[in-house]
Amino acid sequence: MTSKPLYTRVLLKASGEALMGSQGFGIDVAVADRIASDIAEARAMGVEVGVVVGGGNIFRGVAVASKGGDRVTGDHMGMLGTVINALALATSLRKQDVETVVLSAIAMPEICESFSQRAAIHHLSQGRVVIFAGGTGNPFFTTDSAATLRGAEIGAQAIFKGTQVDGIYSADPKKDPNATRFDTLTHSEVLEKGLAVMDVTAVALARENNIPIIVFSIHEKGEFGKILAGGGLKTVVSDD
Ligand SMILES: Nc1ncnc2c1ncn2[C@@H]1O[C@H](COP(=O)(O)OP(=O)(O)O)[C@@H](O)[C@H]1O
Ligand SMILES: O=c1ccn([C@@H]2O[C@H](COP(=O)(O)OP(=O)(O)O)[C@@H](O)[C@H]2O)c(=O)[nH]1
């Protein structure tokens, strides 16, 4: 599909849990390849794509804290998990001949470039997919917040939150079978209704910078491209 896209530069948040597929832990290469093929399709449409990858398939800092360990160290471990996922997704993209760079919030020059806004925008404007690793680089944050932060820094026209469900519902659809899906919401409505698909910090930062958030299922092949072309199943969070 090569329809004219609605956006020219977007930020895709790919959850870590999505990358593990049906396994209980780690990375399912077939899933990483499939997500990469959706990103390749977006590039073929001419859309510049930045990607923030999660790390929940490998480690979450709160897991350490809940067992009496140090939260900050746990978060460091979580951020390193996102680097592993970023390298896996970059590998899948390069296999499909999509030029890709990984920029890490935590310097590890032997492995990948360090993040700077200037480097990110340079690579994007050269047509490369830029994968942002290491979250925000700070403990007590999430990769959803990293997605909004990097989205604002690169001037993304929308944040695409690719997750396990196909939009934002009146309640968690995994827990409430009667939950209904919203087509559109404002950032304030998401916060006021306590709709927990994305964390409060991420939504507040997107509201402050007037960036729409599009929540969609990362498991549906081709959905990213369909939404970029104006269709697809999603919830759009926007204040316009
Ligand atoms: N109101 C809601 N609408 C949609 N999903 C919700 C809602 N409340 C909670 N969720 C849950 O939020 C999850 C996404 O949150 P998150 O923990 O960021 O997952 P991930 O990072 O793995 O995508 C969904 O898989 C869904 O089960
Ligand atoms: O800016 C950030 C981003 C992530 N993390 C840590 O990395 C883990 C994995 O990220 P996240 O839970 O956001 O991944 P996802 O839910 O998207 O798979 C988190 O639990 C945190 O421990 C962090 O400390 N700072």
Automatic annotation (TrEMBL):
UMP binds at G55, D75, T136, G137, N138, P139, F140, F141, T142, T143. GO terms for molecular function: ATP binding; UMP kinase activity. Its main location: cytoplasm. One of its GO terms (biological process) is 'de novo' CTP biosynthetic process. It is an enzyme of class 2 (transferase). Residues 9-217 form the Aspartate/glutamate/uridylate kinase domain. Residues 21-26 are annotated as: Involved in allosteric activation by GTP. Keywords: Allosteric enzyme, ATP-binding, Cytoplasm, Kinase, Nucleotide-binding, Pyrimidine biosynthesis, Transferase. CDD domains: AAK_UMPK-PyrH-Ec. Pathway: Pyrimidine metabolism; CTP biosynthesis via de novo pathway; UDP from UMP (UMPK route): step 1/1. It catalyses: UMP + ATP = UDP + ADP. ATP binds at K13, A14, S15, G16, G56, R60, T163, Q164, Y169, D172. One of its GO terms (cellular component) is cytosol. It comes from the Bacteria. Homohexamer. Belongs to the UMP kinase family. This is Uridylate kinase.
